[in-house]
Amino acid sequence: MNQEQAKKRLVAIESEGSSWLATWKEIQPYIAPHRGYFNSTPNAGSKLDHKTLLDGTAVRALGILSAGMTGGLTSPSRPWFKLGFTDTDLMKYTPVKYWLEDVESNLLSIYARAKVYGNFSAIYEEVGAFSTAAMMVLSDFQSVVRGRHFTAGEFYLDQDGDNRVDTFGRKLKMNVGQMVKTFGEENVSSNVRNAYIKGDHNVYHGVAHLICPNTKHQPGVKEAQGMKFSSVYWEEGSNEGKFLRVGGFNTFPVMAPRWGLTRPADVYGRSGPGWQALGDVKMLQKLQRDSLTAVGKVINPPMLKDSSVPGSVNTIPGGVSVSDSLAPNAGLRPAYQIQPDLAAMENKILRDPGGHPGRVLLRPVPHAGAAGPAANDRARGRRAP
Fold this sequence. Notes:
This protein is about 35% helix and about 15% strand. It is built from eleven helices and ten strands. Helix 7 (about 175-185) crosses helix 8. The two termini are about 30 Å apart.
């Protein structure tokens, strides 16, 4: 695969994935304001829009959902998978049992040292909010493995005929120093190399990354040509036509959970809690805004000032405003009187769309044990990735 072919492949999956951005952008400010990457400016901070997000119930519920899934599926405090063989007679052999226990213990220790549990928690939030998540598991010299999770808008996916994700693409920003350290000075473009020599290490450049099936797979070859999946990086905007790095994987390194594939051709999920709760969360923000407005008008109502009252009106407690007129309506008075049914508004806010009290718009999935012994068996029998 040359660079032109890789570019076409990435453009194709990016074009398909872009149609989902509108919904993700709508979900983000209401349910996951700390997630989502829709700003092309690298390393740019942002502030929360509290005019939109007056009530943080959904944001907190998403955290509860993530914590529940972490504890129920990939708990860092207890074994969450069980290794075994399909050969039941072999499983009865005592040395085999001891060997499997040692491997399980080593794997759990590796996952803990590599801090992959933080990545698990992140992708549970992503899939809960946007119905699609992605996490890459890579080899690491110091910690054996390491995880890297991605957020909505940062990556694009494609799948094979069996609806299994087999293609991953992304566009990222890297500064000159990062590019030279990651890919080597000899592999970057002349523009990046010159900037590095001049000391302009914080100038950002676009980098594209694509992982896809290797159509020219050569079994037995140790180099990239022998890998089942190709992994290539290239610098965007460079006309030199070379890759920054060419590599590969024998197994697809990206975990891409998707919540609710309702159509066979869908690559991205569309029926997760975030999608379902978006309308309810918007309604909640509207009710809170109306409630606060009503309370504000009761506590500090708009006032009418007679022309006989000079200067500004003193509305602080105990404040005095002077009037020179003896007319009946002279001085200050409320512009109008309102008597909002605050109890009814609060009752509406405190009830979820189904009419049940609780204000929990995103419910965490039950622990594996809540579904009965069969679910427990399936959870314990899950193999390590």
